[in-house]
Amino acid sequence: MHRRRRTTLTVSAALLVAAPLLAACGSQAHPGAAAVVGGDRIAVSTVQAQVTEVRDAQGGSAQPAQGADQSGQLVRAKLHGIILDRVLDRASADAGVTVSRAEIQQMRQSAVTQYKGEKGLRAAVLQERWISPDQIDAFLREQIQLTKLSRVLDADPSTPAGAKILGAALTKASKALKVDVNPRYGSWDNKQIQLGDYKALWINQVTKPAQAAAEAGA
């Protein structure tokens, strides 16, 4: 039996905030696409919509995230997140991992309790993760996926050995999806599960919060 722990969404403060508007055009090979993953286009407009949601939420926040003039980081953060979501879906499917709506709701309620209300949760993930209110459930779903995938693989991502096992599963899924990023946003690194120069230390910034958060419902 797993010992119940308090839910936490502690996140890295290493992220920089920046959000110039995306250009309307994509690459010549994939017009209008920010990336192609598993043969499916991720439209520039899809990335832009997520960027706009965050910027709108920051505009109404009493504590807007720092560095709003840093070039391109928010755009890359959102594109990185969309690609990572597809990679996680593939790795989860390969391992037979599924996530129910009830699991997401349970984790959200635990997080709301941890942050002393919905307002506290929204402020925390916006400030530290650039996640707007409408993006929270998708974020929690990723956390559950990562934790359940780690358990299926018998990998503890807080250890070097466990991180290597989980990373190998994600790399395998990433390669299978043949991620093709519009060069204007960088290139996708299958080994690091990372977009270009966007320094998303996914083991620290995604997996550890996932493990801690989902164990609350174990």
| Element order: H for helix, E for strand | EEHHHHHHEEEH
Structural class, by secondary structure, is: mainly alpha
Number of domains: 1
Report strand %: 5-15%
Shape: globular
Tell me the strand order in the biggest sheet.
Answer: 2-1-3
Helix content: 40-55%
Question: Measured on Cα atoms, how large is the radius of gyration?
Answer: 17 Å
Uncertain segments are 1-28, 64-71, 201-218
Instruction: Say how many strands there are.
Output: 5
Largest sheet, in brief, is: 3 strands, antiparallel
Discrete helix count: 7
| Assembly classification | single chain
Terminus-to-terminus distance: 8 Å
**Mean pLDDT across every amino acid position:** 78
Can you describe this structure?
The protein is mainly alpha-helical. 52% of the residues lie in helices and 7% in strands. It has helices spanning 44-59, 73-95, 101-114, 118-129, 136-152, 160-177, 202-215, and strands at 33-37, 40-43, 180-181, 188-189, 194-195. Strands 2-1-3 form a three-stranded antiparallel β-sheet. Strands 4-5 form a two-stranded antiparallel ribbon. The chain is globular. 39% of the residues are buried.
Give the tags.
three-stranded antiparallel beta sheet, 7 helices, disordered N terminus, 5 strands, 218 residues, two-stranded antiparallel sheet
Describe this structure in a few short sentences.
The chain is mostly helical. It contains seven helices and five strands, in the order E-E-H-H-H-H-H-H-E-E-E-H. Strand 1 and strand 2 form a beta hairpin.
